[in-house]
Every structure is written in structure tokens, then in C-alpha cells.
Amino acid sequence: MELKNHQLVDRFKRHLNYLRISITDRCNLRCIYCNPRSSKQKRPHKEILRYEEILRIVRIGIHLGITKIRITGGEPLVRKGCYKFLNQLTAIDGLKDVSLTTNGVLLKDHIDEIASAKINRLNISLDTLDREKYHQITGRDLFDQVWAGIETAHAKGFSPIKINVVVINGVNDDELADLAKLSFDYPFHIRFIEYMPIGKTPAAPAVPLLTPGIKTRIQALGNLIPVTSQTNDGPAMRFKFKDAMGEIGFISPVSNHFCKTCNRLRLTADGHILTCLLSDISEDIKTPLRAGLLDNDLADVFLKAVERKPFQHAENITPFTQPAQMVSIGG
Ligand code: SAM
């Protein structure tokens, strides 16, 4: 049967061509801002989408105009079979860009599998360069292992490598210049992400440090020269220091949210199409899929989600704006 030829355009004329897929709600780290040690038990395996189910949803999404996919989690690399899945995903016709967000813990030992799955863009989370602080933030003493993974990915030619730094005042604000300095020695994109108070995490700083303050902290390194954005760029405002190999990016979901140009949908590990990171408006696609509905009916689930996508999230993000933790949504 021919699939309907609708495109994913919402009520505000935004074309949604970017699907972020969380393939697991499990993680090998317990970051204080994302997956706190007190967080609830994970969902049973049967509630999590199987790989073949995700691939079917992706094919339908492509038909409706999805061209860009990011695989995230939880930690995507902890899910059994993920490398075979990545291969199957990148082999699907119609995708222009497939990237992966990882905490880097398993990167070093699996870099060849990631490369052979033709994933060329990696975002790696690293909030500190201090081993002890890494342990405090993530709950595990794995800084050296993650750094070795980053070096290995670099040596293997992955490009660009984006380093995601969630900035938490009082935790890593004293290290922002050191992290930014990495862009002189490596062609990495160091991206400072404003901490979002999502779910009930113990990380919430009394006074948030937002992009203007972050810029001030790294200004001693030189002038930030704007870099022109490319079509597939996300919401990062891009800059470069003179003579640096890499870039600096600022992602400001709190101080300057990018809802107006949002092109994203999310597929959660338990099979919901989530319309906004900071809203619980979602459509369950797993139940109709498992009930044997046809592709056209599943395309309708996509379209229904898009119809309900809010124009923007609340101006003031509070811990209650999105009650789930980031680890279960996918960031
Ligand atoms: N496990 C992978 C990782 O660590 O990169 C992927 C999942 S993680 C949820 C995806 C991204 O969300 C990471 O870059 C993480 O730093 C970011 N993130 C998680 N909680 C956040 C928060 N409260 N505020 C801002 N960014 C957050």
C-alpha cells in the first residue's frame, strides 16, 4: 500500500525533519543533573521499542520528511545489539545525517564498530577535565577512560567531534576557560549548554549561570568570532577564537530558547513521539504498532503528534515543567 504523502509541518508552519531517538533509558553513569542516583527503576525490556520497531518508525518518518536523526539515550552504547542497529539505520535510504550522542565511556573499545556503521558525527558529554570532579558529577571514576575514547575518536578521523558541557554554577563554572581552551589544541566543538532544571535532580544551582555569564568567563582567551551556521546545524550559536582549530558553541535553552525554529521530534525509548523536550504532549506509537496497524495508521500518529506540538515551552523552566528525568527523554 502507498503511504500517504503528507509532510510533518506543524500549526506554526515549522517543518519537522529532525528525529531524536532514545534507544534506551538505561545509562552507565549517574550524572547529578540527568540521571540522579535516586531516580526510579528503569522500564522493563518489553516496554522498550525493539530495534526492528524503531527502524519501521524511522522509515515512516522518512516518508513524512525526516532527514536527520540523532541516536541518544540513556546511554545508547549500553544497549545490546546497538552497533548492528546503527548499521541498519544508516543503510536506510533518505537520511542525510545520522549522529550519536554518547557519554564516551564505551567509545574507545567500540570506535571501529561505530565507524563501520558510518556514523561520522559524535557528540560526547564531558562536563569537567578534573578526574575527581568527573567522579562526583557522574558517580563513576571514568574520566581517563572517556578521555581515551575522545582521543581515539579523534585519531580515527571522526569529525566534527562535539563536546557537550552542561554548565552548572558552583560545580564546573571554574573550569569553563580550560574546557574552551581545548578548541586551540583540537578541532573539537566545545558546546556550553545551559543547565535545564528538568525533573527533580540534586544539581539545581541556587543561581543559574547562563550564556552571557559563560561568555564572560571565557573571554580572557580572546575575542569570540562568529561562525556562520550551516543547514544541518542545531541551535548552537557558533564562534571561534582566532587561530583555534576548533569552535565554541553556546546552547541556550533557558536564556534564549530556540522554539521558533524548532524542527525536532523525539522518539522515546518506550515508544512515544514527544513533541517538545519541555512538554509532556506526546503520542503513543508503540501500542498501535504492536496492535498490527498499517504504516499509514502509524503515519497518522506522527501527524497527530505534529498537530499537537506546542509553539514554545514555558518561559520559565521549573523542575516541574517536564517531570521526567533527562535520562528517560534523551536530551
Ligand atoms: N548518555 C548520553 C550522553 O551522556 O551524552 C546521551 C544522553 S544525555 C541525556 C544527552 C545530553 O543531554 C547530554 O549532552 C547531556 O549533557 C544533556 N543533558 C542532560 N541533562 C541535562 C540538563 N538537566 N540540562 C542540560 N542538558 C542536559
Structure, described:
The chain has a single domain, classed as TIM Barrel, CATH 3.20.20. The chain has 10 helices and 12 strands. It has helices at 51-63, 82-90, 107-116, 131-138, 143-155, 176-185, 211-218, 286-290, 295-307, 326-329, and strands at residues 18-22, 68-72, 97-102, 121-125, 161-167, 189-194, 224-226, 237-241, 247-251, 264-267, 272-274, 282-284. The chain has a 12-stranded mixed sheet with strand order 7-8-9-6-5-4-3-2-1-10-11-12. The radius of gyration is 19 Å and the shape is globular. It starts with 17 loop residues before the first strand and ends with a helix. The structure holds S-adenosylmethionine (SAM). The site of S-adenosylmethionine has 20 residues, from strand 3, strand 5 and helix 10.
Bound molecules: S-adenosylmethionine
* Global geometry: globular
Contiguous runs where pLDDT drops below 50 for at least 5 residues: none
Total number of domains: 1
Percentage of residues in strands: 15-25%
SSE string:
EHEHEHEHHEHEHEEEEEEHHH
Q: pLDDT average, as an integer?
A: 92
Helix content: 25-40%
Please describe the biggest sheet, giving its number of strands, its sense, and whether it closes into a barrel: 12 strands, mixed
| Cα Rg | 19 Å
How far apart the termini lie comes to 35 Å
The level 1 CATH classification is Alpha Beta
Report the strand count.
12
Quaternary: single chain
CATH architecture: Alpha-Beta Barrel
Strand order of the largest sheet: 7-8-9-6-5-4-3-2-1-10-11-12
